[in-house]
Amino acid sequence: MVTRTLAPFDPEVVRPWELGAGPRGVLLLHGFAGTPPELRRLGEHLAAHGWRCRAPALAGHGTSPEDHERATYRDWLASARGALALLMAECDEVAVAGQSMGGAVALHLAATEPRIRAVAGLATPLAVNDRRLRFIPVLKHLRRWHFPDGAIDLADPGAVEELHSYGRRSTRSLHELMRLLALLRRELPMVRQPVLLLHGAGDRTVDPINLEALARGLVCSAEVETVLLPRSGHAISVDVERDEVNARVLAWFDRHVPAAAGVTPPAARAEGGPSPRR
Questions:
Q1: What's the pLDDT tens digit per position in 101-115?
Q2: Which member of 68, 203, 237, 239 is catalytic?
Q3: How far apart are CA 269 and CA 161, in angstroms?
Q4: Which of 30, 45, 79, 100 is catalytic?
C-alpha cells in the first residue's frame, strides 16, 4: 500500500479502531484524505499505559473520493464530536490528539468543549502556504479533481505502508479544508487547555512555520509546548522519530490528566483494524 492510491481501500484495513480501557480516554483524529491507521502506533502506546483510545474515520474518509467530495468541513467536525461524545460517556477524563487536519479538528474540539483536559497536535496546519489555493473558490468550479504528486517526505520510506490516503481529492474538499482552517484561526484564542505541538522539520506538506504561528495564537492556553523533530517529515506518527512522538504525547497527557492514585493501567484491548507492527 502506498501513501496515496487510486485503488479502493480495503475496508478492514482502514476502518476505525479502539484500544485500551480505563477511566482516561484519548480521541485520535487522522488527517485530510487520510484514515485511522495513521495514528495506530500512538494509540498502542497510550493504551499500553492505561489510556482508552478511540480513532474514528471522519465523514467522507476511508471510503471513496466521491464520498470525500460530498462531505463538508462541518460534517468532519460533526463526526469528530460524535466520537468524542461516545468517549466522554465511557471515561471520566478525556484528551484529544490529531495529525495534520486532525490536529486542527482537535483544537476546534478543545475550543468548544471545556471538558477536554489536554490536546496534542501533530503537524497541525494553521494555514496552507500553497498560493494556488487562494483561487480554490473559483477553481473548484473549473476543475473537479486534484491529483497530488507522489513525492514522499518521510525519513523512513517504509513507514509509507502505514498510510492510506486518497490519490484523488476533489477541489471542493480542498476548499472545505481552507474553510476549516479559517474557522480555527478565529477559534484559537478560545482554547484554554494545555496544548502540545509537534512538527517535523522536513515536512513539505504543512510548512513547519505553522508550529510557532499556532503557539503565538494560543494566547489563552494554560500551557503551550512546541517540539520540532529534526529528522521527520509530515506524518510524524509513523516516521523515524515516532517513538519520541509517542513518549512526548504520553508524558503530556499523563502530566495534565494524571491517573487516580492506586489505579493500575489495565491490559490493552484491541478492536478495529490490524496493528501496523510487522
A1: 999 999 999 999 999
A2: 203
A3: 24
A4: 100
